[in-house]
């Protein structure tokens, strides 16, 4: 987070370190009653890696993301963060989640708090950060996402794109080691998508580890180190974005891409 | 102002009894302010427990709410004042006054707050948990402030009813405003003057409370909110 936003291409991003796994899913299953949504998912995200997750709706990609911070408790399997087994008994998930930033499709900003108060709530209450320091950091982050002038606005006074940028800044306030993005541009008017993608691009280039469920194939191709295609509760195909998008090996991937890339 | 029965309206009669009405009003204010504050507190606390689906406690709360919402307030007052002494629990009029109002208003407010808390969109709590807040902390920082805003109009109605229902204490001869007026009427037969006087007092106070409630609602309105 201390790196200044880069103006170079994606190649200017520090290379992902393949030896250091940030997030590791091992044989993750997730069922709701008799419905099995995830049927054994293995996925490793290296430190600094940007992984785009694509796939048809209902295929389990959002559930996969929500299993990383255990917002959805897994039915079976292991979730590891920086080598620590989060599914082990006795894990304090509240403390673990501070290291995992999450951004939602519907923004989920606290509507009764101003933008800056949305950002300072967690550091002040969870990290006991002094009010002045928290506000200073919040204003700096809001400036970074281009919203310095909206610090005292309330969420419902902002456009969807602005709200989503505040939501990203809110997650960054806790200095997360990895960021989860759950279809963060899906609820936006088309003309507001790019302002959010710009912030994510900036973040990716600063070396942030990112796991992004997305429908933005252009974004996946540009910034993704890896593309994961999830369908039927499993990772049906994965590889370099250009390879998967241009030369899909799996029938279901081919079918899906035919529909979305028309 | 003579009417068909030869009745003369005497405003001076009201002025003559202002002192007594004043002490009655003070008792009304005393039992209803304790009753309102208590009904608010009970509503928030038990409503929270109820919405968080805490086992056992939640079911006990349901019993309390059902009992007090499905029996007449007058019967509740009689029970506290006349029936409890039979099992060794003797309360004076003042205690029965605020306690019956608190229990009655509390039961309704539990439901008001529970419904408010449950109406808060799950996404806000989820965002709070994702930041690292525990379940109780997320309740305190998100569900409570948002749910209380949703509950506010119906809670206000109940609190105003608590105030108005303080007049039920006439049934146990606790000398609050209505009982005081009834007693004055009993010896003077100045029915019209007395009930006009207390009617105006109740109306004025409820009007003030509504103004206050409106100010609170505006103060806590979410900017840009629907």
From TrEMBL, chain B:
It holds the Pfam family BPD_transp_1. The keyword Transport applies. It is found in: Cell membrane. SUPFAM superfamilies: MetI-like. It comes from the Bacteria. It is a multi-pass membrane protein. Belongs to the binding-protein-dependent transport system permease family. Signal peptide: none annotated. Its main location: membrane. Residues 25-213 form the ABC transmembrane type-1 domain. Keywords: Amino-acid transport, Cell membrane, Membrane, Transmembrane, Transmembrane helix, Transport. InterPro entries: AA_ABC_transptr_permease_3TM (IPR010065), ArtM/GltK/GlnP/TcyL/YhdX-like (IPR043429), MetI-like (IPR000515), MetI-like_sf (IPR035906). The chain crosses the membrane at residues 29-49, 194-216. This is Amino acid ABC transporter permease.
